[in-house]
Design goal:
Elements (H helix, E strand, L loop, with lengths): L3 E5 L6 H12 L2 E4 L18 H6 L2 E2 L12 H17 L4 E5 L2 H9 L9 H8 L3 H11 L1 H4 L7 H12 L17 E6 L2 H18 L1 H7 L13 H8 L5 H26 L3 E4 L5 H14 L8
Parallel strand pairs: 1-4, 1-5, 2-3, 2-4, 5-6
Helix pairs in contact: 1-13, 3-4, 5-8, 6-8, 9-12, 11-12
Length: 301
């Protein structure tokens, strides 16, 4: 993580725009830590950076994976670490930018040697309903069932896997240790953030997100969790109106941003920066100062 700086925060805060302007100031390249932007396609729905930004500054792990592929924290971490090494080999610093908390923590804390998922077992568990998964985990390990979010299907499946592989979920962490990293946690006042989110959803509808989703094919279970995908498919199926669809996506995105805010406030020690109090140029200058104060600079690896 030497010569690497993190810019994290909730969706809609403006991380991508800031990073695209900070990177040239320090000669950096950008690595995206976004669980959905890593997939190819659905550029509007996943709020990928604008083409001009992608052209002006090298971006990595955006549109890097087929939407038919299953992604997880371990796969992201391995890809990201390889990319960091490649960028450093060119004598350039790295900006890691994103809002996927687990992906960020995989880099800041590392992963322990917990058993990897078994494809056959994972496939069997994915066939079960949420209620069946809850019952199964409760039967295997009541303590673990009481310690995790029983509505989070992904965590349920992983906890059951660990039980069946001889591990005890919650008895030891899947994080290894915290490494020395520098970064900034950007956020906005609630009304400002929600206004930006609502406007962005309206904008992608104007730009053709319905047609984008209509043209998409079958996706992996992880790719299909993109916020707005289910809502737009229901719209295309005639199960809702465009007004209802837009409002549902705005609400889902606001709720996601709220969860992200909670995560980053609890899980990181990055310097907080309220973007509602700054102009874009002032924020770029402030973050550039933090990056330089952290010793992140070309050739400094």
């Amino acid at each position: 993580m030497e010569n690497t700086f993190f810019i994290v925060g909730p969706t809609g805060a403006g991380k991508s725009e800031l990073a695209a302007d900070v990177a040239p100031e320090i000669g950096a390249e950008i690595i995206s830590a976004d669980a959905f932007q890593i997939y190819r396609g659905l550029d509007l729905l996943t709020a990928k950076p604008e083409p001009d930004a992608l052209a002006n500054v090298p971006h990595h792990l955006i549109g890097a994976v087929s939407d038919s592929e299953e992604m997880n924290v371990e796969k992201f971490r391995q890809r990201a670490l390889r990319t960091i090494v490649e960028i450093h080999s060119r004598g350039k610093p790295v900006l890691v930018v994103g809002g996927s908390g687990l992906y960020i923590k995989a880099l800041t804390h590392g992963l322990s040697s917990m058993p990897s998922a078994k494809p056959d077992l994972r496939a069997q568990l994915n066939e079960l309903s949420l209620q069946d998964l809850q019952k199964k985990l409760t039967g295997l390990n009541p303590k673990a069932a009481g310690a995790i979010d029983l509505k989070n299907r992904r965590r349920l499946v992983r906890a059951i896997e660990l039980c069946l592989l001889g591990e005890r979920p919650g008895d030891r962490t899947e994080w290894a240790r915290e490494v020395d990293v520098s970064g900034v946690f950007v956020f906005r006042d609630r009304d400002d953030l929600y206004r930006r989110i609502n406007h962005r959803v309206e904008a992608i509808f104007e730009k053709g997100v319905i047609e984008e989703v209509q043209a998409a094919g079958a996706m992996s279970s992880t790719a299909s969790k993109v916020i707005g995908l289910r809502e737009i498919r229901e719209l295309l199926a005639g199960k809702s109106s465009i007004v209802q669809c837009l409002a549902q996506i705005q609400q889902a995105t606001r709720r996601y941003a709220k969860r992200q805010l909670t995560w980053f406030r609890r899980q990181t020690n990055f310097q907080p920066l309220n973007l509602s109090l700054l102009t874009h140029n002032e924020a770029v200058e402030r973050i550039s100062q933090l990056v330089k104060a952290a010793g992140v600079a070309p050739g400094n690896d």
